[in-house]
Amino acid sequence: MSTASVPVAAGTLVRRKPPWAVRRRRFLVAVADHSLLIVVAIIFLTPFAFIVLTSLMTNEQALSSHLWPSPFRWHNYVDVFREAPIWRWAINTFLYSVLATLGVLCSSIPVAYALSRIRWRGRDLAFATVLIALMLPPVVSVVPLYVMWAKLHLVGNLGPLIIPNWFGDAFSIFLLRQFFLTIPEEYLDAARVDGCGELRILATVVLRLAKPAIAAVALFSFLYTFNDFFLPLLYLRENPSHWVLQIGLSEFRSLHQVQWNLTMAATLLVMAPVIILFFLAQKAFVEGVTLTGVKG
Description:
- Helices cover 69% and strands 0% of the residues.
- It has helices at residues 20-33, 35-55, 59-62, 76-83, 86-117, 123-135, 142-151, 159-162, 170-180, 185-193, 198-209, 211-227, 230-236, 245-255, 260-280, 282-291.
């Protein structure tokens, strides 16, 4: 008579924790390996930490040699909104950045696709023109553009800042073209066999595969327009109702140059949206920038 063997349940393997001396040695080795990066990070974070600490001080502490606020004055951030129309500046800034970013995407994507995947006479000449526009400094066109917008009576509102972005951006076209070249031609040929036209191929195939590059271009455009100071100062200086955050912060600093605690609080509020956006979209940003340089 045979007896059935009952399988013995294997015990759960528990990884033993390394001794304290081993963990301490690993930590010190990791610190030594990344010592240069740690020093650079501290150098870059020191001004930001100074801004945060100063924004939480009283006016007397901000003008003294104290580096640590005592007590923490969180009410400074409320005072900033009372002293200046931050919300109106923020609405103007987001209106400028969002519409300009949409314009860059809507105008640059079709051009980049035409320069990378459609064969037509004069394509190389058109791409050379884009490269020339990319190499020219933006200040070259400032005076003629200002004269044109002044003749159209658009100086003083957001029009001169938003409208040019709907006619393409050389850097965005170049970046998207480089990514479109990495898409296998077989995908596009299969879509053409199925009867798709070029616009449908762009909408259904290319845009889905080019999400990292599109995200990178959108972030570049949004961050540039959000931090732009020169063009809003040129076109909006005489109309405070259309000021963006960068102009408003400059004027706020001029009016409250002695109150460094309020100035630092306003600076931190202006910096916060960009920092939050970058950390939320960091993965797509790095991936898009990396993949756009795969093929020339």
